[in-house]
Amino acid sequence: MSRGVNDKNANGRKAEVSLTLLADDGKPIANTEVRFEQTRHDFLFGCALPTWHRGNQEAEEPFKDVFSILFNYLTTETALKWRGLEPRKGQLNWKVVDRIVEWAESKRIAVKGYPLVWGNGPKGSGVPRWLLNKPDKEIARQLYKRVRRVVERYASRMTCWDVINEPFHATWFEDELGSGYMKEALGWVREAAPQAKLLINEYDLVGFDKELARFIKLAKKLQEQGAPLDGIGLQCHPGSRWLRPDEIISACDRIGELGLEVHITELTVPIEKQPVKGRPEGGVWNEETQAEYFDMFFRTAFAHPAVKAITIWGLWDGMVWQNNSGIVRRDFSRKPVFDALDKLINHEWRTTCVLKTDQRGECSFRGYLGQYHVETHAGSRKLTASFHLDGRSETASVALA
Q1: In whole angstroms, what is the distance from residue 112 CA to residue 101 CA?
Q2: CA–CA separation, 358 vs 16, rounded Å?
Q3: Cβ count within 10 A of residue 107
Q4: Which residues pair with 37 in a beta bridge?
Q5: What distance in Å separates the CA atoms of residue 120 and residue 81, rounded to the nearest whole number?
Q6: What gap in Å lies between CA 143 and CA 197, rounded to an integer?
Q7: Phi, psi (degrees; rounded to nearest 5) at 308
Q8: How far apart (Å, rounded) are the C-alpha atoms in residues 259 and 231?
Q9: Helix, strand, or coil here: 79?
Q10: What share of the chain is helix, strand, coil (3-state, %, to 5)?
Q11: What is the spatial distance between Cα 393 and Cα 373, in angstroms, rounded to a whole number?
């Protein structure tokens, strides 16, 4: 098997920690069994969240119920696209985005803003109609206003931004303003949201060596210019092609060599019973093959040290970009791929253990990075606490009450 697929504990996803457990009176909890249960991952497992319209609103709640079982990270699929957010100059409708963010916060789900700058005009949703045919100075001025007002509104509520989306395939802004718009837009976002992760996002990079080399050249140029670039977003819409582990690893290696993070931003497979291309054993794309592919892809990406997030681009078959590419069917019954992801995210890659402290109240374990619930009993009293295993500290004290 290829490197990465089998290594559950690779590349810093786990850490060792020695804990001293203290009761509420400050005394060590000695010679006592303690249960540690991970309640949240640090790694970002994500999915796109669509904008609901008349005709499918009844699916919103079951969609969100399914979403929150697996994912701790969401991407605003359509709500922030410029043409929809500001259909008329100066008239912005924030209601949909605000509602998404409020729900995410209620579930402790991190949010990525997508897309800030997407030059897929004149027909696409990344460029409003009222901006077309304007002089380049006006386009630049309006782009600055667009980026700053969106980011400033959500700077404390969105942790990551796809700042430039598909610069190789959606070139309207470059055609109008020149390639310098990318560095400028990244700088505007950094000024407004200093702590956020800033990405440029593109498709046909994994398994496409020439396109990947070209994109890496762009990233290096932005770095040399001093642009505040934190990572590369790899869209993975391979159609009927099976992206192999070595292709995934190679792309992540080459990006990681730049010191940049890798975010898998849009992972899909259309399920239309077409032949599987690129897999030695062949087969056709069906629900079982989809589950096998996602299992392989998640294991490979999760095992790579440069990868910080994996986001799928379709949850519900009733509202997906590619046919039957969701992880639940139209009636919200679970496909095999849902069960495969549930097994990985909520079981195989989640740490739960029961340990006994020594006479000093100390114990140690190795666990996946994230938030933990701690529970024990002192006589008839139940004592609880929470702590964050972040891999930066090898020792810690935890007070239970």
Answers
A1: 10
A2: 17
A3: 12
A4: 352, 373
A5: 11
A6: 20
A7: -115, -15
A8: 8
A9: coil
A10: 30, 30, 40
A11: 18
Adjacency order of strands within the sheet including 352-356: 352-356, 33-41, 370-378, 381-389
Structure token pair of residue 390: 């972040």
The pTM assigned to this predicted structure is 0.95
| 141-200 per-position pLDDT tens digit | 999 999 999 999 999 999 999 999 999 999 999 999 999 999 999 999 999 999 999 999
Tokens of 258: 């730049």
Q: Which residues pair with 272 in a beta bridge?
A: none
Phi, psi torsion values for 258, nearest 5 degrees: -85, -5
Query: Using CA atoms, how far apart are residues 41 and 185, in angstroms rounded to an integer?
Result: 31
Class of residue 155 by CB neighbours under 10 A (exposed 0-12, middle 13-18, buried 19+): middle
SS3 category, 262: strand
**Where are the extended beta strands (E) located within 296-361?**
307-312, 352-356
Amino acid at 203: Y
Is 78:103 a contact under the CB 8 Å cutoff? no
Q: Which two tokens stand for residue 303?
A: 């095992």
15 vs 12, 114, 299, 351, CA distance in Å?
Answer: 7, 32, 18, 11
Alpha carbons 244 and 2: distance in angstroms, whole number: 9
219-244 tens-digit pLDDT: 999 999 999 999 999 999 999 999 99
For 141, the token pair is 């001025």
Cα(113)–Cα(19) distance, integer angstroms:
37
